[in-house]
Design brief:
The protein is mainly alpha-helical. The chain has one domain: Orthogonal Bundle (Transferase(Phosphotransferase), domain 1), CATH 1.10.510. Helix content is 41%, strand content 7%. The protein contains 8 helices and 6 strands, in the order ααβββββαβααααα. Strands 1-4 form a two-stranded antiparallel ribbon. The chain has a two-stranded antiparallel sheet with strand order 2-3. It has a two-stranded antiparallel sheet with strand order 5-6. Helix 2 runs antiparallel to helix 4 (110-127) and helix 4 (110-127) runs antiparallel to helix 7. It is globular, with a radius of gyration of 16 Å.
Length: 189
């Protein structure tokens, strides 16, 4: 892998101590999204998308790292190209609700879970705020999942930071706990 001279997106966010401006976010997020689309189109689910795993080279181009949880998606089973796994992996604060509620025999679409994690990343860089700002432990997993399902992040009530309507809509689309196939390209224009 090439050298990431500028560290991770998370390190840069912590270093600046404030949300990124939308043009910078658009550049970083387009790089991350294009990489995820690229691997999804090749039948791979990332399964651990978080700001720490998105690195920046000397020109601030995004490099995706740490593919330890990535897996090949199932072949076209029942005409669906989805990874249906029952593995609870990744970082808790970035996990989709369906991953958190894994139990005996439960499976989920890991590509859709990747999209949810992208929404958490986008929220964090635009607001400099952890989406649900609590740790997800076995003790509070039910509360955490209810907040995800009910979308209890209430952007307008959390912070008074002005972002575009396109950015708000994209966050809402990515954080849908019941995702469907939708195109994100219009939000990146």
């Amino acid at each position: 892998m090439q050298f990431a001279a500028n560290g991770s997106v998370e390190e840069l966010l912590i270093k600046t101590k404030k949300p990124f401006k939308e043009p910078k976010v658009k550049s970083y997020f387009a790089g991350i999204l294009n990489a995820v689309i690229h691997i999804h189109n090749r039948g791979i689910a990332r399964r651990d998308i978080k700001l720490r795993n998105n690195l920046l080279d000397k020109n601030d181009n995004v490099l995706i790292s740490n593919f330890g949880f990535s897996r090949q998606t199932a072949a076209k089973v029942f005409h669906l190209d989805k990874l249906m796994k029952g593995t609870n992996c990744g970082s808790d604060l970035y996990k989709a609700p369906k991953v958190l509620k894994l139990g005996n025999g439960y499976v989920y679409d890991a590509k859709a879970a990747d999209i949810y994690s992208l929404g958490v990343c986008l929220f964090e860089v635009l607001y400099y705020f952890k989406l649900f700002c609590e740790s997800c432990t076995q003790r509070n997993i039910g509360k955490f999942m209810r907040r995800q399902k009910n979308r209890s992040y209430k952007i307008e009530q959390i912070l008074v930071i002005s972002i575009s309507e396109n950015a708000r809509q994209l966050i809402d689309l990515l954080l849908d706990p019941n995702p469907c196939d939708q195109s994100f390209e219009k939000y990146l224009a």
